[in-house]
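User: Some background: our group keeps a shared notebook of sequences we're curious about, and every so often someone picks one and asks for a predicted structure to add to the entry. Today it's my turn. The entry only has the sequence so far, pasted here. Could you supply the structure so I can complete it?
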Amino acid sequence: MPPPTKQAKKQQEKASHARSIKLLHQDSILQPDFEEQKSLVQETIEAAGHLCIFLLKFYCELNFIEFFWEAVKKYLQEHCDYTYNGLRLG
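Assistant: Of course. Here's the predicted structure to add to the notebook entry:
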């Protein structure tokens, strides 16, 4: 029997992935508290008295830090003399 082709391997991987997703979905239905479990990162941040907000992936328009860095870069472009001392704040 010849070895499986790349296409056959991809199909096997897709089928295996689909089975895994189905099992995960079944587990989440059987264990609804699993979806409510917070990550260690979130628990640690909240235990320190802070608010933990996870932003959507790939939506930099919604991420405040992107607006901040845009303003910093614009300021530096307008006020920089391109020396180390010129970049220092204060």
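Suggested note for the entry: DSSP finds five helices and no strands in the chain. The chain has two domains: 1-37, 53-90.
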